[in-house]
Amino acid sequence: MVKRGEHLYNFWTDADHPRGLWRRTSLESYRTDNPDWEVLIDVDALNAAEQQDWVWHGATVLRPTDDSPWRHAPITLSHGGSDADATREFDLVTGGSSPQPTVASNGLRQRGAQLDRPRHRVPHHRSRAWLRERVGISAAGATVASRNADDRRRAALPG
After folding, report:
1. In Å, how far from its chain's centre is CA 95?
2. Burial (CB count <10 Å: 0-12, 13-18, 19+), residue 86
3. Where are the beta strands (DSSP E) in the chain?
4. What's the chain's Rg over C-alpha atoms?
5. What's the Cα-to-Cα distance from 148 to each of 22, 105, 127, 151, 157, rounded to whole Å?
6. What pLDDT, in 10s, does the model give residues 55-92?
7. 6 Cβ neighbours under 8 A, 6+ residues apart
8. Is 10 helix (H, G, I), strand (E, B) or coil?
9. How far is the C-alpha of 78 from the C-alpha of 45, rounded, in Å?
């Protein structure tokens, strides 16, 4: 459950909705014994309408930049629960979404409408074996690289 603006949002699954419902209610309604939920997205109905196998991966309700209403919410879905996400912008005022999702395929990261290669991430522990195997550094070079990374990390710590 998350509060954005005047609404509380949550994602709900049950026997009738195994893929789930993204819904919202007001704080006043939520405090009652039987809250009045407004269903924003029924993933099961979306799957039936689009003949897809979408799995909910989340939503982010974006804060408005001025006094306008909370309106824009990128929603993230994936085919069958895969790592590749499709993002649609959902309009909380009109209840509509962009017709075609922007899809980020496996191994690519989405930034706006552009796709770019993922950054080469070194594990936090920066193990010598990992450096040797993945980056191709010799054993001596891996020891130095690992030691230098540890020194930089320690130097960045406060106090």
Report:
1. 20
2. buried
3. 2-4, 7-14, 17-26, 38-42, 54-59, 72-79, 85-91, 102-103, 109-111, 114-116
4. 22
5. 47, 35, 12, 5, 15
6. 999 999 998 888 888 888 899 999 898 888 888 888 88
7. 26, 27, 70
8. strand
9. 15
